[in-house]
Amino acid sequence: MNLKESERQLDLKRTHYIGNLNASLKGQKVVIGGWVEDLRELGKLTFLTLRDVTGVAQVVIIGEGVKQVKDLNRQSVVRVTGTVQETKSRDFPFEIKSEKMEILSRAVHPLPIDPIGRLESNIDNRLNARALDLRNQKTAAIFKMRHHVLQSIRKTLVDLGFIEVNTPKIIGSASEGGANLFSLKYFDKQAYLAQSPQLYKEQLTIGLERVFEIASFYRAEKSHTVRHLTEFTSVDIESDFMDYLDVIEVLETVVVNVFEHVEKNCIEEQKALGINVRRPVTPFERLTYEEAVEELGHEGIHLGSGDDLLDSHLRKLGEMHKGFYFLIDWPINLKPFYIHEKEDDPALSRSFDLQYGYLELSSGGRRLHDPNKLKERLIEQGLNPSQFTDHLKAFDWGMPPHSGWGLGLDRLMSILTQIDNVREVVLYPRDPERLFP
Questions:
Q1: Spatial contact of 197 and 167, defined as CB atoms under 8 Å apart
Q2: Taking the CB of the first residue and of the last residue of the chain, which one, N or C, has fewer CB atoms within 10 A?
Q3: What angle, 0 to 180 degrees and rounded to 10, lies between the N-to-C axes of helices 137-159 and 244-265?
Q4: Do strands 324-328 and 285-288 pair parallel, antiparallel, or not at all (unpaired)?
Q5: What's the whole-model pTM score?
Q6: Beta bridge partner(s), residue 85
Q7: Domains by residue range for the chain, with CATH
């Protein structure tokens, strides 16, 4: 049976996004589409507020169209053909007089949350209906901003000569010592979800020299805090012929460029979130581990040489050092097996953490490139070099000196948006209790 052309192909095209309309288009016919945010009946007129991802517009419906929308629920999806005209509304610079409206999808009430935000919902309910939550302009602003942040990071690293790579997330051996790994059966073999691209990105410097990756990684930590997730997005770089102080400069450039890009390109998103993003003061302060221990001692917190800095210690340091700062030259015993020692003091490492107050955003440093030293360090840390055979053999092929870091994108977004709970800045967060949706 042959179908008519009109039945065979439904026209879903729009002539404009709402955000591209303006009063200068008066008299022009347009086709727009989106979801109904509000409906107001005034006698023989109905005013419909229509929103798409770019903005909101007022649509005036008269005649037979009024009957069509009488029982239409808010959040339903429609396509409107009409003419741009002047308006008496103080909330809109123009309006669209509807000539034709197609109801494409009806929203079934009651909805699980109010996406307009008139009725507040707790974060669990919002995450359970995350796709609908994105119609809330504050929520949408977060992820539009995140899009811009990723654009900025990629541009900065590419401009600095880095090549984007993709490393495996299903791995056959425990990386970085094997702590907090998710394990799974890979057919008849034991496998793990990668917690970092560390070993792969080091190997890739042999041929590609400067590499970066932006990807999801996994840590089986049963942490119930506002800053921990079991699946997180990490920005990682590795570069040969760079020392740890060189990659510190790369990291600072990445972060500063993110803030400058968002400040300039996310004006509406900042308004929706009620924030003002400003370029951080540079250069970021550099505080050695020994200086940090000394400062804590003045505050009555006495640590021995080589003691780790606990969350309570970092919170105290964060009170004294606002904003971004680097903690450098950590004791070698507190760092992973692949971190290089300081030649003038082997008890310390050529390493750093980037802090924002108490919050750790990034960790990095110079890596060992001598295979014999690397094997010794593995043994010192109670690890079996035979479990790292595939990694170690690359060091016999001419491994250049190299350094790198990993940056938690979700934590950076939390700082940028001034939102404490990292779950707010992740579309579908995963923590020990949340596996759906």
A1: yes
A2: N
A3: 140
A4: parallel
A5: 0.94
A6: 95
A7: 5-105 (2.40.50.140), 132-425 (3.30.930.10)
